[in-house]
Amino acid sequence: MMDCSEEVQCVSEETSAQMELKKGMSIFIDILRRADKNDDGKLSFDEFKAYFSDGVLTADELKELFHTIDTHNTDNVDTDELCEYFSQHLCEYENVLAALEDLNMSILKAMDKTKKDYQESTHLEQFVTRFLLKETTNQLHSLQSSLECAMETTAEQTRQEKQGPVKPEVLSIQWSGRRSNRRLQRNSSLSPNNPLLSLVNSGVYEEDGQWIVQVNRLQKLIDRLEQKEIRLEPVEEEVLESKSHILIVQRQLSVLEEELEEFRLALRQYMECACAQTGCLHIAAQRLANESRFILYEFWEHNNVWKNHLQTNYSKTFQRGNVDFLETPELVTTMLVPASWWVLNNN
């Protein structure tokens, strides 16, 4: 593992290697590194959409932004193009990014010195070090809370200004390589009456037999539909009224092996918060056998409840963490089913 001194040196060398980046613009090197899932040094539209989608911009608006940034017309975005575009719109945030760059270097240097000197320090000196680390963390958390509040406010203002409801962004990125069979490991899901069950060694939750049956039935139906073994014909046209159906969201997440433990912790925190969210009917998580791929099923009262959920701090935190945890961008699909099915299966 790279120690702090090596990380400081690496950051310095990487920054100096860029073509005369303005102060504070090195953040876009890090953005491209995290968003570039296939490590080819540039962002495809799928990679761009997975990273920059904020639940407010539509797919068409994201596409327009992508082509605006892609001034070289290569259908890819590189660091120079990111810096060129955002440098024109930074305003006061130019000073913020410059300060963050200095802060990042200062913290890395401080941690490097702590690592070298801590064991040889007196008990009182060690206490001071621990206290300063804790207070630095508190200050950063306070700043983060203020920023998240500003994010929520600006996103809500934009949604109110748009005419009509915004259709939630659906990622349709195909997994690389041969498609795996959709066969779920006999794992468990969260019970609606006990949303805070602990993780077991396999990284999934304790068994709730009723929900396993329902989820597996749904999975078999999806399998059959994809294989075109059956065709569903409507008996008669039915007009859906508001709140006459529920929304099922399926999220496929392919996790990097080295990030599994961190991902499990983040997933548990996300599920605990989501289960407590108004309008969340149930959440189930399963891991595919012999793979580091998870399938997350979310059941919501209706579409608007899910859109509101996407704008919560815990949902955005989970999404930001997935940028580092996932091997490829997650695949999200949604399905509306009659609410009567839910009532029938729970009586």
From TrEMBL:
<keyword id="KW-0963">Cytoplasm</keyword>
<keyword id="KW-0677">Repeat</keyword>
<dbReference type="Pfam" id="PF13202">
    <property type="entry name" value="EF-hand_5"/>
</dbReference>
<dbReference type="InterPro" id="IPR039862">
    <property type="entry name" value="NECAB1/2/3"/>
</dbReference>
<feature type="domain" description="EF-hand">
    <location>
        <begin position="23"/>
        <end position="58"/>
    </location>
</feature>
<protein>
    <recommendedName>
        <fullName>N-terminal EF-hand calcium-binding protein 1</fullName>
    </recommendedName>
</protein>
<keyword id="KW-0479">Metal-binding</keyword>
<dbReference type="Pfam" id="PF03992">
    <property type="entry name" value="ABM"/>
</dbReference>
<dbReference type="GO" id="GO:0005509">
    <property type="term" value="F:calcium ion binding"/>
</dbReference>
<keyword id="KW-0175">Coiled coil</keyword>
<feature type="domain" description="ABM">
    <location>
        <begin position="247"/>
        <end position="335"/>
    </location>
</feature>
<dbReference type="InterPro" id="IPR018247">
    <property type="entry name" value="EF_Hand_1_Ca_BS"/>
</dbReference>
<dbReference type="InterPro" id="IPR011008">
    <property type="entry name" value="Dimeric_a/b-barrel"/>
</dbReference>
<dbReference type="InterPro" id="IPR007138">
    <property type="entry name" value="ABM_dom"/>
</dbReference>
<dbReference type="InterPro" id="IPR011992">
    <property type="entry name" value="EF-hand-dom_pair"/>
</dbReference>
<dbReference type="GO" id="GO:0042984">
    <property type="term" value="P:regulation of amyloid precursor protein biosynthetic process"/>
</dbReference>
<feature type="coiled-coil region">
    <location>
        <begin position="218"/>
        <end position="273"/>
    </location>
</feature>
<keyword id="KW-0597">Phosphoprotein</keyword>
<dbReference type="GO" id="GO:0005737">
    <property type="term" value="C:cytoplasm"/>
</dbReference>
<keyword id="KW-0106">Calcium</keyword>
<dbReference type="InterPro" id="IPR002048">
    <property type="entry name" value="EF_hand_dom"/>
</dbReference>
<comment type="subunit">
    <text>Interacts with STX1. May interact with CPNE6.</text>
</comment>
